[in-house]
Amino acid sequence: MPKKINILILASVLGLIALSAIQAYLINNTYKLKKDVFIETTSRSISRVDDFSPHLDSINDIWQDYFLNLLADYKSKKISKQDILSLLKLKTDSLNDSYVDRYKKELAEKDLKHDLKFQKRIKTIILPDSTGNDTIFNHLKSSKLHLLGEKFSEKSAHKVSNSMWLTDHSFERNIDGETTTLTYDLQFETEDFMNIDGWERIVIIRMKWLLLCSIFIFLFVFGLLFYSIKNLINQKKIADIKTDFVNNITHELKTPLATLSLATKMLKKDNVKSQPAVIDSTVNTIERQNKRLQNLIDQVLNNSLGYKEINLKREKVVASEYIDTILDDFMLSVEGKNISLEKAIQNEDTTISIDRFYFTTALFNILENAVKYNGNIIGVHSSANKSFNISIKDNGIGISTKNQKHLFDKFYRVGNKEIHDVKGLGLGLYYTNQIIKAHKGQIHVRSIEGEGTTFTIEIPLN
Ligand code: ADP
User: Which of 61, 100, 170, 208 has the most CB atoms around it within 10 Å of its CB?
Assistant: First the structure.
């Protein structure tokens, strides 16, 4: 059975993990899809900003003219390739502030609701001619050149568009005292990028219902599974406890019944009928076994009571006197077993309000257990402050921390023959706890396996 439960738990956990993995995969895919859609729609909505804004257009025209003239100077061998790039940079830097300002205004009019940055970068500047390509700039050889727009890192940049400008340009230059008209072809490639601050958050907010539903369903399935497994384990524990109880009670019933059967057989024998002494002793045996059976049944019936079913008849007793009497009775019951008692009673005059019968049963259960489970030195300590406390300590076999949790459960017995071979029904501590609860008190256990156990009872004063 435990094997089956373990397999079931493992299968359920694996199933849950697989389900979560599929769910995570689907969410991730949706996230990517939503991200693509978001980036795509945003880039579409800004891609033509330049074209529809006369202000931006005029700034573009200024740098384009300047750029074409730089190329003309280069073609006339007045400046170098490097000069083109550095002069173009100086010019665009001087135009950039008003370009960015204007661009932001255009975006504000579009009401995009995201913090968006834009950037135009140069990819290539090539002057093709009949002898080949004269490359002024190629982004593959040096890093991309920022033209207009705001600065942001490469990592957070999303590409908006690519544009290629193929043109030929005629210009006039004074060469050797003569005004000459020259022409060159131009291949100019740029790339537009944008940066959206916190786009991940925006996409996640757009997915909020999906995420919330997924989390809810996951928690629901997880909770259901957890609850079912917990229930299954509890059922199994209860079934085990019941089996143990049936085994224990059968064991307890067997001995008196066997003795009774032997005794009746004995009484039937003809030679016994003429021996009154043997008859007397056999009848005594029957009586004892009968009493034992009666005790057993009473124990099961009474000790199964819950604290609500216990009707206390409280009386005020002086705690120290009461404990002394109990301990005297107890020591009498274990006479000859070599048990030593260490007693420390504080606040001798304290009076407590208890049901003498029930409270005595509770204390006796603990004291008897101390001896049953191998204790031979028993320490009883009591004190009274805000409440009345009595602790009973033994040097017996002790109880592991794991088992201490269930100690007060009905029918619970620690382990089996490997731990001890003491008979019992697992009702003593349950009943003790119920009695203490009926007195509105509490019982605690502290124990170290192999060293001993201390039970502490605390009940309110008055
Ligand atoms: P029973 O003694 O009939 O089994 P109890 O309810 O009195 O039932 O005790 C429950 C279990 O707690 C016992 O089976 C025993 O394993 C453990 N136990 C109780 N008292 C002690 C003790 N003083 N030392 C060690 N184990 C104890």
Answer: 100
For ligand 1, the distance from its centroid to the CA atom of residue 227, given in whole angstroms, is 30
What distance in Å separates the CA atoms of residue 446 and residue 452, rounded to the nearest whole number? 9
pLDDT tens-digit series, residues 414-445? 875 545 567 788 889 999 999 999 999 999 99
Q: Which residues contact 227 (CB under 8 A, 6 or more apart)?
A: none
- At 297, list the tokens: 């049944």
Residues of the chain with pLDDT under 70: 1-2, 113, 144, 416-421
**pTM of the predicted structure, to 2 decimals:** 0.58
- Contact status, residue 349 vs residue 318, Cβ threshold 8 Å: yes
- Which residue's CA lies nearest to atom 2 of ligand 1? 424
Residue 89 tokens read as 């940079």
Q: How far is CA 184 from CA 63, 64, 65, in A?
A: 18, 15, 14
**Count of C-beta atoms within a 10 Å radius of residue 340:** 10
Within 6 A (CB) of ligand 1 lie 365, 369-370, 373, 394, 396-399, 407, 412-414, 424-430, 453
Which residue has a Cα nearest atom 7 of ligand 1? 428
DSSP string, 354-402: E-HHHHHHHHHHHHHHHHHTT--EEEEEEEESSEEEEEEEE-SS---HH
